[in-house]
Amino acid sequence: MARQWRIEFPGAIYHVLSRGNGRQDIFRSDDDRRLFLELIGQVSKRFDIEVHAYVLMGNHYHLLLKTREANLSKAMQWLGTTYTRRFNLKNRHSGHLFQGRFKSIIVENDVYLLRLSCYIHRNPLRAALVTRLIDYPWSSYRVYAYGRKQRPDWLKTETLLYQLCGEDRHKAYRTMVQQYAKEQSSVWEDVRYGLIYGSRDFVAAIKSRFRGEHQDSELPQQNQFLRATDSQMILESASKFLAFDLELARRGKRITPAEKQKRDMLIFLLWKTGRLSNKQIGKMMGVTYSTVSKIISAFDDRIKTNRQLQAQYDTMNSLFKV
After folding, report:
1. Per-residue pLDDT tens for 289-300?
2. Which of 177, 181, 182, 205 shows the shortest CA–CA distance to 192?
3. CA-based radius of gyration for the chain
4. pLDDT tier at 275, thresholds 50, 70, 90
């Protein structure tokens, strides 16, 4: 099984998710949930990890964490192994409880962490387990939204609540979560390559710091990330060469025929690198993958008969293709 690429450093923030093997339930009773929360507390203390939010569902869980040391893998391995052993003993279960390795998304900063907290806290609503989030006892929502005094002593709420304005930050959080119903799909627009949640500058910084000298064939996420970020740099440099407003095109604004030709040339350049699928190119350029296919075919035909266009493309290709 392919491993997930782990990016670990002191002060890193993560969204951690793990599901049951074959999507089986990992919590069969409230005692199981209480045990899991107890173990989270031990993880926080033993591995010096801040826990900012959690949601326990039937067959999976979500955690928002900040590691003071580069030790996420060790901490989550201990949590998964310890809980599985005690769950199996209590429930007369054998074998694997979790589906492979846990999934982790590194988060840029506290602002992005706040948005993620809204997303994970709304899980019980999306799963139709409750009609009001206050009625779901197995998440940190009630602490954030109502200031419930019965809260785990390891749960750190200040980082998120202090970002909110007004005298009643709990009410402000409730309002934010309610309004978030219209925005939850936008979270994944800022998740880059399935493992980083943040801005393009943050992605570039992570790449610069953690790309390493060699790619690991057993880490497909790393390989995809490195290929795509290289392609992003090529795209941005080539756009400047053509004096093309990339952001304008991405926002779906109407462009002139001359600008359209520049856009098509950029799409053709990305396609010729062989690093990205049409779907990935479309996401970078703000068009659908089927549109990418049509553009590639049409541009290939034009470039064969237009010497000026061919010369412009060849110049750009020689400068930016790697």
Report:
1. 888 889 988 988
2. 205
3. 23
4. low
* Rounded-to-integer distance, Cα 43 and Cα 190, Å: 29
Q: Which residues does residue 53 pair with via DSSP β-bridges, in sequence order? A: 64
Condensed to tens digits (0 to 9), the pLDDT of residues 56-85 reads: 999 999 999 999 999 999 999 999 999 999
For residue 14, the Cα-to-chain-centroid distance in whole angstroms is 9
Strands (DSSP E) along the chain, which ranges? 12-19, 49-56, 60-67, 103-107, 191-192, 196-197
C-alpha triplet 268, 272, 277: angle, nearest 5°: 85
The whole-angstrom separation of Cα 184 and Cα 202 is 21
| pLDDT cut 90: percent of the chain above it | 46
Domains of the chain: residue spans and CATH: 12-197 (3.30.70.1290), 214-320 (1.10.1750.10)
The pLDDT score that the predictor gives to residue 227 is 53
